[in-house]
Amino acid sequence: MAHIVIRLSRFRLYLYRDSQLIKSYPIGIGKVATQTPQGVYTIVNKVPYPYSYPGGPLSPFGTLWMGLSRPHYGIHGTNCPSSIGKRVSKGCIRMHNRDVEDLARYVGIGTKVMILP
Question: Can you give the pTM of this predicted structure?
Answer without folding.
Answer: 0.93
